[in-house]
């Protein structure tokens, strides 16, 4: 070794663990007197006990072993980063690069450098001057590498986007919970990954996923036995006019899809619905089921009653969301509501039926859209009224503007009629406000029971009472205004939705049971006792009463 290299190497911390023998060219371990035929790096492996090129020292102190181990780890990290740097910038390490970087890395590995200061080739920290605060401490090559990585990511993202666009996949595909795990494992695999073929996807990969699902369903079955569960039935018609019925099981472990049957070749009467539901109860086990939930169609009502006659421990419960939607439909048939909804639909239909008028509206509403009524859910009709009322001033300004008055639409029959409704009908806006006040509390209940944020069973009783109170309050307590609304609600609530399970859920819900507004009326206690009589044995019933 040259005199310069010898001088630099003597600065390495490992020399304090070396025995120097006069006239000997090799290093000797201070702890075990073992001769090292290599340099200081090999001696570090000897002291660290890595079994790399030399037998580990059996007498080294713990502090010395950890110090050498940490230095070797730092050296390895720096070497890895150096190789990645050369690969990214597309050049191979020349002898000059290798020599210069090796000296620097060797110095860093020896631990002689300070935390944040730069280190020279001799191992001494480079003093920082007053101009250094105006310069970046990040190497220029690192900045270039970062920018190059950004460009590389853009290219990868474009390839992913191109695949999604070519297959017509919805953009929310990337919100799927399995999306990021897939991307992570592909990235961790690194270059050379060969994606699965179509044959693999439909053979061994599919079989392993089915096996995994079989394991998961066992956990759900344990929850069904421990907590009980609810069977949910949902019938619908697909694009090919096939009548499909889905069966799902809900429990505290979440909702599990059981199966879907094609009922197109059978008449959807009560007998067939009873057969399908009874088979599901048999498959899951009657002792695990609390209730069977369906919609309010007459065939399902018939099937539910027959099911409760045969199965003495479970309940049939109509879908709360469907019942509330029917309540809103009944309310919508009242004179004031029906007239107001009809006029509101005409206004929205006229605006959205003509491109120029829609564009004009967006300039006045600052791109806020109006909710358009849907066919399947009657609640959207009242949400349309709400969005219309929020844009009241913008619509008045639009139909009063010079741009509207000078257009050809201002002279057409549809335009004149719509403008007259918005600007000059003295009852339109007050009636819109009245319809909103008398239905929005019920729409809020619909949103609550139709979401999966919390189980609705323990809250539906209190939610309905609270909604009726809000409607009465919005009508300033005038019975002639809220009375017809209440009667429409009770006509559906009492015979259809009001079930002993709802009363029991209300009574046993600790969040409501110990509140100041808890209503311990006979109706609630009666529902609780009915549930206990039906669902518990005599001994369990006695314990429950105690």
Automatic annotation (TrEMBL):
SUPFAM superfamilies linked to this entry: Ribonuclease H-like
Metal-binding in keyword set: yes
Region (Disordered): 104-148
Residues of the BED-type domain: 9-64
Composition skew (Polar residues), residue ranges: 134-147
Pfam families xrefs: DUF659, zf-BED
Keyword Membrane annotated: no
PROSITE patterns reported for this sequence: ZF_BED, ZINC_FINGER_C2H2_1
InterPro entries to which the protein is assigned, alphabetical: DUF659, RNaseH-like_sf, Znf_BED, Znf_C2H2_type
Alphabetically ordered keywords of this record: Metal-binding, Zinc, Zinc-finger
Biased composition (Gly residues): 108-120
Name of the protein this chain belongs to: BED-type domain-containing protein
């Amino acid at each position: 070794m040259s005199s310069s290299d010898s001088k630099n190497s003597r600065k390495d911390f490992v020399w304090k663990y070396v025995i120097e023998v006069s006239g000997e060219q090799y290093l000797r371990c201070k702890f075990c007197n073992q001769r090292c035929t290599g340099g200081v790096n090999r001696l570090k492996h000897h002291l660290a006990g890595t079994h790399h090129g030399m037998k580990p020292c059996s007498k080294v102190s713990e502090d010395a072993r950890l110090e050498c181990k940490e230095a070797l780890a730092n050296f390895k990290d720096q070497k890895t980063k150096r190789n990645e740097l050369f690969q990214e910038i597309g050049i191979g390490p020349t002898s000059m690069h290798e020599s210069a970087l090796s000296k620097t890395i060797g110095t860093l590995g020896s631990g002689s450098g300070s935390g944040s200061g730069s280190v020279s080739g001799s191992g001494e920290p480079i003093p920082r001057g007053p101009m250094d605060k105006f310069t970046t401490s990040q190497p220029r090559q690192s900045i270039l590498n970062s920018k190059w990585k950004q460009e590389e990511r853009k290219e990868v993202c474009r390839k992913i986007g191109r695949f999604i666009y070519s297959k017509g996949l919805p953009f929310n595909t990337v919100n799927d919970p399995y999306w990021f795990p897939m991307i992570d494992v592909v990235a961790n695999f690194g270059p050379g990954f060969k994606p699965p073929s179509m044959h693999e996807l439909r053979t061994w990969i599919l079989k392993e996923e089915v096996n995994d699902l079989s394991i998961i369903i066992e956990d759900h079955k344990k929850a069904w036995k421990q907590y009980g569960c609810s069977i949910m039935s949902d019938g619908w018609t697909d694009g090919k006019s096939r009548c499909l019925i889905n069966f799902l099981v809900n429990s505290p472990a979440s909702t599990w899809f059981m199966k879907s049957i094609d009922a197109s070749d059978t008449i959807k009467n009560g007998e067939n619905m009873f057969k399908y539901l009874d088979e599901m109860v048999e498959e899951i086990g009657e002792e695990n089921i609390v209730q069977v939930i369906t919609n309010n169609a007459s065939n399902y009502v018939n099937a539910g009653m027959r099911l409760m006659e045969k199965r003495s421990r479970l309940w049939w419960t109509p879908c709360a969301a469907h019942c509330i939607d029917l309540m809103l439909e009944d309310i919508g048939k009242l004179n004031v509501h029906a007239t107001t909804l009809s006029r509101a639909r005409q206004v929205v239909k006229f605006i959205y039926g003509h491109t120029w008028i829609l564009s004009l509206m967006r300039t006045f509403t600052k791109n806020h859209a109006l909710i358009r009524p849907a066919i399947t859910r009657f609640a959207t009709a009242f949400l349309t009224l709400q969005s219309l009322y929020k844009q009241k001033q913008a619509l008045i300004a639009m139909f009063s503007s010079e741009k509207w008055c000078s257009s050809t639409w201002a002279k057409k029959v549809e335009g004149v009629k719509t403008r007259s409704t918005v600007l000059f009908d003295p009852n339109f806006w007050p009636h819109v406000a009245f319809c909103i006040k008398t239905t929005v509390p019920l729409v809020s209940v619909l949103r609550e029971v139709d979401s999966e944020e919390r189980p609705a069973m323990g809250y539906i009783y209190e939610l309905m009472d609270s909604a009726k109170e809000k409607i009465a309050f919005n009508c300033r307590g005038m019975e002639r205004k809220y009375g017809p609304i209440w009667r429409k609600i009770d006509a559906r609530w009492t015979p259809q939705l009001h079930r002993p399970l709802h009363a029991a859920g209300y009574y046993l819900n600790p969040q409501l049971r110990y509140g100041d507004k808890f209503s311990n009326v006979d109706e609630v206690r009666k529902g609780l006792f009915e549930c206990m009589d039906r669902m518990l044995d005599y001994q369990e019933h006695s314990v429950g009463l105690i």
